[in-house]
Write a structure and sequence with these properties.
Distance between the termini: 90 Å
Number of helices: 4
Number of strands: 22
Low-confidence stretches: 1-42
Strand content: 25-35%
Largest sheet: 6 strands, mixed
Length: about 325
């Protein structure tokens, strides 16, 4: 009887030791400031990006804020972004290095210590998906990447009102050229592409080369301008040089030298409006301030007309849209 009891006791001990060897305590951390000492998995570390807004003008930006668990304090992190999809990156668990390649860009990198204290500039227009990735070293010597939820922001092109402010002198000059080109036999329309140009972190709005339409008989209302293909330069790095077409400007000719009875409305034509809507691009027209008829004063008051409801170039939703203007 004693032998049987000892045998049973030995079997129970072997089973206990066997289960203990196979069971591994979960790696965890204690939530700071919680009196109940809640235990959480290391995969649940909180990491969140808070931006100062959801709409930005290209070339500008805001100061981001990081919300994260204390366990990640002092860890290296970066804010990465891409247009039209979740940002992609490569992570080396041996050294914690995070690397990206186009079309994903590294907006900022640093150490998680309080508020970043920097401005996150947005030089590339588009619908951006932003992601924060933190590199955390564990006790086994290996690193693990922790991600935030994806944050979406929109970076817009300059609008027609910024264009007018920057290029009014250029538009007035081309308007004067249009009046000088008119005579009793023919007239012409003149115009140019409008570009948003990035040099480093600075944004400039520039006028392209002046284009002249075919000679026409303005009295017959058949004047038009054949626009050239605009120049497009997309960056290969976040602050790389870039050039984007953001609108088209042109003039409408006078009727001063028409001998026959003729008149026309002023401002954007139906064709101008249709082109703007089809291409997602604003149109600006220099024309007289009120209806004109043959023999009018060629120097009568004139103004800029803009395509209301289509005040800025359509926002790119992917890299293809960024490389083209008529998407």
């Amino acid at each position: 009887m004693k032998s049987r009891f000892c045998f049973l006791l030995l079997m129970c001990l072997l089973m206990v030791f066997s289960c203990t060897e196979e069971y591994e305590l979960p790696k965890s951390s204690i939530e700071p400031g919680n009196k109940n000492l809640m235990v959480k998995s290391r995969g649940d570390y909180k990491l969140e990006l808070v931006t100062s807004g959801e709409q930005y003008l290209m070339g500008e930006g805001g100061e981001p804020k990081m919300i994260y668990d204390k366990e990640l304090e002092g860890d290296y992190y970066c804010i990465i972004g891409s247009i039209g999809g979740k940002p992609e990156y490569e992570f080396d668990e041996n050294n914690g290095h995070i690397s990206v390649s186009v079309p994903t860009f590294n907006y900022y990198d640093g150490v998680l210590l309080g508020t970043p204290g920097h401005i996150m500039e947005c030089p590339i227009p588009g619908k951006w998906n932003l992601l924060v990735v933190a590199s955390h070293k564990h006790s086994d010597g290996h690193y693990k990447a922790y991600e935030s939820e994806v944050k979406q922001i929109v970076v817009n092109f300059p609008d027609v009102y910024q264009i007018q402010t920057e290029l009014m002198g250029n538009m007035e000059y081309v308007w004067e050229e249009t009046k000088l080109a008119a005579n009793k036999d023919y007239a012409v329309e003149k115009g140019f592409w409008i570009y948003a140009v990035i040099h480093g972190s600075s944004l400039d709005i520039e006028a392209g080369s002046t284009e002249t339409g075919d000679f026409c008989q303005s009295c017959l209302g058949n004047c038009m301008i054949n626009m050239s293909e605009p120049e497009v330069v997309v960056p290969k790095e976040l602050y790389g040089d870039a050039k984007y077409p953001i609108g088209y400007f042109h003039t409408h000719p006078p009727l001063t030298y028409c001998s026959s009875e003729v008149h026309r409305n002023v401002g954007l034509s139906n064709e101008d409006e249709d082109w703007g809507k089809n291409n997602g691009m604003p149109v600006l027209v220099y024309d007289y301030s009120s209806e004109i008829k043959n023999g009018h004063d060629i120097n009568a008051p004139a103004q800029i007309y803009v395509s209301y409801g289509n005040e800025l170039r359509r926002v790119p939703e992917n890299w293809f849209d960024l490389e083209h203007y008529n998407y």
